[in-house]
Amino acid sequence: MAVEKMSVAKALNESLRKALETDPKVLIMGEDVGKLGGVFRITDGLQKDFGEDRVIDTPLAESGIVGTAVGLALRGYRPVVEIQFDGFVFPAYDQIVTQLAKMHARALGKVKLPVVVRIPYGGAIGAVEHHSESPEALFAHVAGLKVVSPSNASDAYWMLQQAILSDDPVIFFEPKRRYWDKGEVDTEAIPDSLHTARTAREGSDITLAAYGPMVKLCLEAAAAAAEEGKSVEVVDLRSMSPIDFDGLQASVEKTRRLVVVHEAPVFLGVGSEIAARITERCFYHLEAPVLRVGGFHAPYPPARLEEEYLPGLDRVLDAVDRSLAY
């Protein structure tokens, strides 16, 4: 075993390094990913070690970056594109949904586009406008895209490599508030499937389901609830498209209650699809309606107000109490 304790940021860096070493067709592209090593230093040292032809500093043009990646993928490369911040992805949205997501179907399966679009996302870092968005539902809605988000260092290391190996385009959301959280990474482990949910904490009274930045919050909520005698199970979904409904259903059939937590607005969020699908699948098992905890249906506020906007421990525990009260 090769187990090392590292931050999520370091795990992503090591994962990219491993991919570059393993496959000469892997390229990294983005704004400031080369000499600077990325604004969060996720690509630090990679251009120095692999050269400017494989770790490419691009112009500030997200549509051009993704469009170029599409062309490279058509020529047999595996581009890993970095969008510097979540709110900057929208100039590239057209390329992602009209080209990247649809080329495989348009070509009747003859063309594959193995492109990974890395997006640091979410709030709680005190950033300015356009730097704290959670747009995952916009991409999960688009057929032809895989959408995933790790919550810890081990998943960051393994899920990014699995995304790069995928022949389908993957939108890889990185929870920026968790970049500095540390955890053990076994670089010789056999990882779970990219789209398999993981039980992060066993429980029997209620299930909390989350992904990315909210998994840690749900674990904290479960620990707090345990002090009051409540047994809370936490499921790390890991993937927003496809969603492991079988794994989540197994948990809900055991606990008979579900609360879905994400940073993104509740209105038409990923939690809405989960609530609808689990209600369909588990109607005769549920003892309470599926509840959702998330951001408000409003533009992301200035940094001094983001603690009021983002789900916190109290809002999650309130949902747990409301569910258990039925």
UniProtKB/TrEMBL annotation:
GO terms for molecular function: oxidoreductase activity. Residues 6-181 form the Transketolase-like pyrimidine-binding domain. Its EC number is 1.2.4.-. Keywords: Oxidoreductase, Thiamine pyrophosphate. Its cofactor is thiamine diphosphate. InterPro entries: THDP-binding, Transketo_C/PFOR_II, Transketolase-like_Pyr-bd, Transketolase_C. The keyword Lipoprotein does not apply. The keyword Protein transport does not apply. Pfam families: Transket_pyr, Transketolase_C. This is Alpha-ketoacid dehydrogenase subunit beta. It comes from Streptomyces toxytricini (Actinomyces toxytricini).
